[in-house]
Amino acid sequence: MCRQQSILQEGFLLYQNDKHHFTRNHNGIINMGTSENKLCYDLLSKRLMQADMLHMDPALLEYPDWKGHSFLREEVASFLTEYCKAPSPLEAENVVVMNGCSSLFSSIAAVTCDPGDAILVPTPFYGAIREDVALYSGVRLVHTHLDCQPGGGDDRPFLLTVEKLEKSMEQAKAEGVRVRAVIFVNPHNPLGEIYSAEEMTAFLEFAKRNELHAIVDEVYMLSVFDESASFQSVLSFDRLPDVQRTHVMWGMSKDFAAAGLRMGVVYSQNQDFVLALAQLAFCHGIPGPSQHQVAQLLRDRDWVSREFLPQNRARMEAAHRYVSGALRGLGIPYLHRSSGFYIWADFRKALSEQSFLAERKLWQCFIRHKVLVSPGEAFSCATPGWFRIIFTDQEERLQLGMQRLRKALEELGRVSGQGAENGDEKAGLQSTADEAEPKRDGHGPLRPPPPSPPALPPHWLMRISSHWTSRPLSPPLAPPWTL
Amino acid sequence: MCRQQSILQEGFLLYQNDKHHFTRNHNGIINMGTSENKLCYDLLSKRLMQADMLHMDPALLEYPDWKGHSFLREEVASFLTEYCKAPSPLEAENVVVMNGCSSLFSSIAAVTCDPGDAILVPTPFYGAIREDVALYSGVRLVHTHLDCQPGGGDDRPFLLTVEKLEKSMEQAKAEGVRVRAVIFVNPHNPLGEIYSAEEMTAFLEFAKRNELHAIVDEVYMLSVFDESASFQSVLSFDRLPDVQRTHVMWGMSKDFAAAGLRMGVVYSQNQDFVLALAQLAFCHGIPGPSQHQVAQLLRDRDWVSREFLPQNRARMEAAHRYVSGALRGLGIPYLHRSSGFYIWADFRKALSEQSFLAERKLWQCFIRHKVLVSPGEAFSCATPGWFRIIFTDQEERLQLGMQRLRKALEELGRVSGQGAENGDEKAGLQSTADEAEPKRDGHGPLRPPPPSPPALPPHWLMRISSHWTSRPLSPPLAPPWTL
């Protein structure tokens, strides 16, 4: 079997072999490419070190129910009932737990499709899904490409509409491709878009009309860091258009900032689907003691609701404020959203030409400057030049990462003194422009992140536009919808 | 994708839905079908509840090196160096860790074969491998069938020889099947056979001659319960015939009696192989905290060598003595071996006819009597009537399981008062023939197993034959090599 390495994998491996560390490897790669939240180690470590985490029971050492121990599935059902605001209690028998959402995507593709079938996905999309769905049975993706230019009555760039979905379905049919499912990621990765209940209902109606399984990926549902933004899980809906074909994914990697715990779940009322997944789950099991730990985390609502979630949101908002401000300082336009760990940013002005080859070269240039971000090609974005920047990291690393991005752009002559018109913003970056180690002690990863949001100029809180912010200055590639 | 449920899976699911419990579900299924060691919960629980198991580090909560954290791979290399008696230190870079050996078999098949290729396996073999290797790329198995009748100079039933391997290779070639690898399980499952260093060297030479990857599964290497038996890991060899094509598997499920910890490893000096596996490992990752726990277990040599291994062996030997004695009491011949969790037993005399349909019916009859064992068909045994009986369980459950087997056979008229000639053995079974709850309190699974081997009549220690034991009495289907 030959398996091609994706750009995301390539970047992750480069980082793995040369991780930045403030004392041990200061010239290592700063990872602003992998979607992880590194803001809450202190909270998680403290909770995971409590005595209730150490528990043993013979069942934890035996071969488990492959779809997850019943105690964990019950806890997941109860947790989702509360945090998704389900109209009636969700049930453990509808829950399947696997070691991460990649395993779930692989298995869901295998049980909903035959080899050669396809799954529809609005694009740009989280690119790792391509390898996931291909893994077991060669399922491929069909794209609904979203345009970065708003137009035709759209007021949002990359707007997803039912019309666009229908059009790509028609095209797939015309090409003889059998589409069996559609993936909706909400909040969206990499766009950060939150689809409203009305939008999601319309998308699910589309799926029903076309007899598609709707795979609704809500792994960022609790990672909405702006209180004015509103997210509604489809599990909160009183009625789902096609309940037997709607399968909702969630996990610990994003909303609990714990990718290392390796736990993804899917909720589906379709028992055939659940049983089919259970048959593939023997290769995706989670150790019993870890299942206990995750159940304990989910059970501790007091800690989740009063400590972890509010602090996580505050830290995310501060970090987002910092990186978005730094991007404005660089004159890089970006999509201003309130969820996820990332900012979808428009580096088109930094390309030598408008091609994916040039995008790849820019990505390599960033890596030479020891900062990893993810190029739009990895998300199958139709337009070259977009990058996903992860902002959920400690202040010092974000500073260093943004300095390195600036240096790379300066080397290319794509940013200059006039790179930001706002004097304060420029000053904000200038204050950290020296790549020397920030004057703090104990920068190792074991050190908890700063307890309060980093002090940033208050005007960075300001929304410049509901969708876009920053004024790209030179070269004159500013899209018309920026300021 | 359509995936057929195997007999082993079917049995396991039946058990999962109706588990025996002494107080909560006394009429539930006794599982003597799934290869687990339930003799050491007390030792493991005590060790896994020690404070060093509770540890946190940011890296444990991040996306890991998919082939395992380096601290764990280093510990595995060091452990295998010592317990396999490697002539020089094994290296962490040659180790890949995944969530269990099924994941490893799936991934190894995918990286050594193209779709449609085949892997050779001496048969009977651990049947789950069939589904494992088919999972990713439709790899199938080619069998070297071993005959239950010794003959042609053989003195061991089911004897594996190079001649038989060569013959099946020739046959595969003649049929246009491309064989890319061969699996050697040592100690063998389900036979319990231990292949000597000379035999293994000859098998590896065969693999080299035929340019086959040799997948050497040594997951039972520390589960040899008779001190007079000698096992040698191929990792102890001064020279391997084809070092780049030899890959050794091991894990925690069997030798650490901890299938629930979900950890399998493969050791290979072929770096292309290691890198290829690493690319598939994103779907088979283990939670960081579990990796820490396993590393702590492996690191604690004092506990492993002075406490766990000797006690485990003593308990295994006692349990083996009990079940083999009970089989003798039933007049069921079996292969007398000194490793593994199972006894490979010959129930041919209990079949209504010599067919796999009759074998399946007997299996179903056992299940109706609420005892799960594994029929030979699940291991692709060429001759119907053989069953694998797991003996590594607590005394009370073994007693109940053997009573239920006896009742099933009695119902079929395949065992009677004259079922055992040895009065003491018969008395031994008679003493537990009443299926009422044994007169002990606290039979729940949380209760630790008895601290010392169960008191069994001393003559049960006796080896009746080096290969076979028991005298099958009636009906007269006794194979000629029994007593």
UniProtKB/TrEMBL annotation, chains A, B:
Ranges annotated as biased composition (Pro residues): 446-457
MF-aspect GO terms: pyridoxal phosphate binding; transaminase activity
Domain annotation Aminotransferase class I/classII large: ranges: 29-396
Pfam families: Aminotran_1_2 (PF00155)
A GO BP annotation: amino acid metabolic process
Region of interest (Disordered), residue spans: 416-460
Domain of life: Eukaryota
UniProt cross-references to CDD domains, sorted A to Z: AAT_like (cd00609)
Keywords: Pyridoxal phosphate
Family per similarity comment: Belongs to the class-I pyridoxal-phosphate-dependent aminotransferase family.
Protein's name according to its UniProt entry: Aminotransferase class I/classII large domain-containing protein
Native source organism of the sequence: Anguilla anguilla
